[in-house]
Write a structure and sequence with these properties.
This is H+/gluconate symporter-like permease. Helix 10 runs antiparallel to helix 19 and helix 15 runs parallel beside helix 17. 71% of the residues lie in helices and 1% in strands. By secondary structure, it is mainly α. The protein has 19 helices and 2 strands. The protein has one domain. It starts with a strand and ends with a helix. The chain has a two-stranded antiparallel ribbon with strand order 1-2.
Amino acid sequence: MLVYDAETGVTETTTLHEEIFMILGIVGIIVSLLLLITLAYRGVPVILAAPVAAVVCVLFSGAPILASYTEVFMPAMAGFVGSWFPVFLGGAIFGILMTVTGYAESIARTVTGWIGSRSAIAATVITSALMTYGGISLFVVAFVMYPLARELFRVADIPRRLIPGTIALGIFTFTMTALPGSPQVQNIIPGQFFGTGAYAGPGVGVLGGVLIFGLGLLWLERRRRALIAKGEHFESPESEKVIGGSSDDGSTVTTTLAPPNRLVPFLPLLAVFAVNFACTLVIFPALDWSYLQEDTFGSITYDSRAGLWAVTVAIVAAIGLIVALNFGRWSTLKVGFNDGVKRSMLPIFSTASEVGYGAVVASVAAFAVVRDSVFGMGANALVTSVVTTSITAGLTGSSSGGMTIALNALGADLRAMAEAEGISLEMMHRLTAMAAGGLDTLPHSGAVVTLLIVCGLTHRQSYKDIAMVTLVIPVLVVVALIALVTAVGGF
């Protein structure tokens, strides 16, 4: 059999044994992905599921198991933690502090007052979006928003099954990946591979965000009217009828402080935006970063770290502001810091474990065939980046994990390909990030499972609406934006 080597440009002949070995390797990649999806869907923690799936991939490929684990899986996992730990840790602490100070609840009630309790769906989406765009961890926002959304839906008599989809629209879509400047990790990851910042592709990002927000609201309002027409009303489960003290499952209810007024709670969110903006577009570009080329700092480039550093500084500044505003209540703030540290561990190590799995897959010989097939499909760099990221995010059930796996394997090649084709790296940053926020919410997604658990609902009750606002609409918007960018030549 004749095989063309894309790197050397040489056509080589493979033996039957080599062909069988390569086929087994490809089968191993597919089987391991299916296993990872199955285990995640059945509730097995990704920290365990990812290495198990990696072992299956290695077994089929014939590579050494122990060496693949200690020399490929673990370094990739550790590398992700080393790069992104400050963002995960800071985001979790920031979110908990916003909760224990009462700021998060105050923001929700203020926004509801502006919009009106009758517009419960819009109020929930906008409040969730403000918190996400303000830098609070997605999972923390889900925990904070559910009790508030439940009360809004109860007053408006909207079926409770719509709550997960409503919260998901605010935290898993346009504020996570589309809007330029978002401090969420999904918006920062592409910058390390494409040399772009958090504000990359502002025009297409804003347009995409508006489309996802508008279409998502239209769907949820349409569903509200349809369900009410069928006779459905808000029904609160028995476990939620006790307010205060301890819940029926024995967990305690966190007591929060009362913010001094309605404007103060917004200041930390504004601080994240202002500091991130200033660092990205004003302060950092004016500094001399030539020392980064020294061996001491790994000979890195400023562009590969700018977005990460700007977001880290912004979140730390916002945390400092919260502490300054509540310094007299240090005992409560201390609890927030402790809880934030604890809650940061599972998300980052879960994502890092998926990255380790991706590194193992990329290390087996069969992956070269997959990689060459991707680049051989004839699409340009933008489409190739969007498709590979979207598929990987869907398979892993994680936008950040899937995007990191795809770009770790193909990022350098995609950047070179885009530069050769004259494609804007900023445009590729924005659309790649948005693509990661589409198929990542398939039923096995950890974020989806967590949100449903928080809301006390099942896939059967609520996944249809989650899928529509976080999967179908974002994917269609990305496709439309690619077609538009191709037609007009970018923004």
